Amino acid sequence: MAMLSDTSPEAEKVLIEVFRRISPQQKWLQLGETYDEGMVLHAAGVRYRNPAATSQDVHRSWLRMNLGAELADRRGQPASGKPMANLSNLRDVLRAFADLGIAHALGGSMASSILGINRYVSHANMGAAPFPGLEARVAQAFGPDYYLSEPAIRQAIQARSSFNIINTATGFKVDVFVCKDELFEKAALARRYGVQMPDVPEHPIVLYAAEDVVLFKLRWYRLGIEVAEQQWKDVLGVLKVQAGKLDEAHLDRWAAHLGVADLLARARQECAS
To answer: Is residue 139 within 8 Å of residue 155, measured between CB atoms?
Structure first.
C-alpha cells in the first residue's frame, strides 16, 4: 500500500528529475548545510521558549534531542560555530579507519541522501570489517571532543554488532556496524567505492553501492516490523534517482537471499506507479 503524499504524481516526476541532476558532491554539501540549519533553528526554538537560556543550555538541549539523555550527559563544550560540523566529524571517523587500514563504507541515510533524495540526517551509519587487535588504536585515534568506549568496541567486534563514536561538542554521532560473518555483508563491503567530495577532495568518501544501500534499508525496514516510514522513503528515493543505473540482477539475488524480495517488488511497483 502506497503511503499518503502531498505531492502530485506530476510534481513527483519533476522532483525526481531534479534530484537526478544534482550531483553526489552537491548533495554532500547540502547534508552539511542542512545540519547547520537544524542547529540554528533548534537554538532559536530554545531561546524562544527561554530567553535566558545560555549557550550551555542550548547545547544540552541539542545533545538530548540528538543523542538522548544518557549520552547527552557525556557532553563537552559547545562547538565554536565551525560550518558543516557533521561532515567534519564524519571525516574524522572515516579517516581514522582509513589510516588504520580497516575496510569500511558509509551507509544508512547519509548514503541514501547522496545516492537518492537528500534530507536532514542527525547521525551517520557506517560498516566496517572486523578489526581484532586494533580496538585500542581506534579508541585512541580521536581527540578530547570525542566519546567512544574501548570495551564497547571489543564487544561489537566479538558480537558483530555496533558501537558509537560521538563528538560531544556538536552532538553528531557515528554508529559503526561491524560486518557480520555473512555472505551479503561481505559482498556489500567488497563493492564499496570512493567518491571525491568538494570539501576535502584529496580524501574520497567511501560508500556502499546504491544497490546495497537499498538492500540494507529493506532489511532494516523488515526488522522494524515495516513501520519505519522514512526508511521506506529512502529506499524509494534511491530506486527512483538511480533508475536505469542499478544492477537489477544483484538486487534480485540478494533480496531473495535476505528474505526481502517481496519488499523489493513492492518498492519497484510504487516507483513505477
So the answer is: no
Q: Global pTM?
A: 0.89
- Judge whether 143 and 126 are in contact, CB under 8 Å: no
The closest alpha carbon to 213, from 78, 135, 67, 105, belongs to 105
Does residue 70 carry a pLDDT above 90?
Answer: no
Residue that has been written with the C-alpha cell 552532538 in this structure: 171
Q: How big is the chain, counted in residues?
A: 273
Backbone angles phi, psi at 24, to 5 degrees: -55, -35
How confident is residue 163, by pLDDT bands cut at 50, 70 and 90? very high
DSSP label of 197: -
- Name residues whose C-beta falls within 8 Å of residue 41's C-beta, 6 or more positions apart in sequence: none
Half-sphere exposure (CA, 13 Å, Cβ side) for 18? 9
Share above pLDDT 70 across residues of the chain, in percent, rounded to a whole number: 92
- Neighbouring CB atoms inside 10 A of 94's CB total 20
Beta carbons of 113 and 210 less than 8 angstroms apart: no
Judged against a pLDDT cut of 90, whether residue 155 lies above it is answered with yes
Q: What are residue 123's DSSP bridge partners? A: 173
Other C-beta atoms lying within 10 Å of the C-beta of residue 88 = 17
CA angle 242, 248, 254 (to 5 degrees): 115
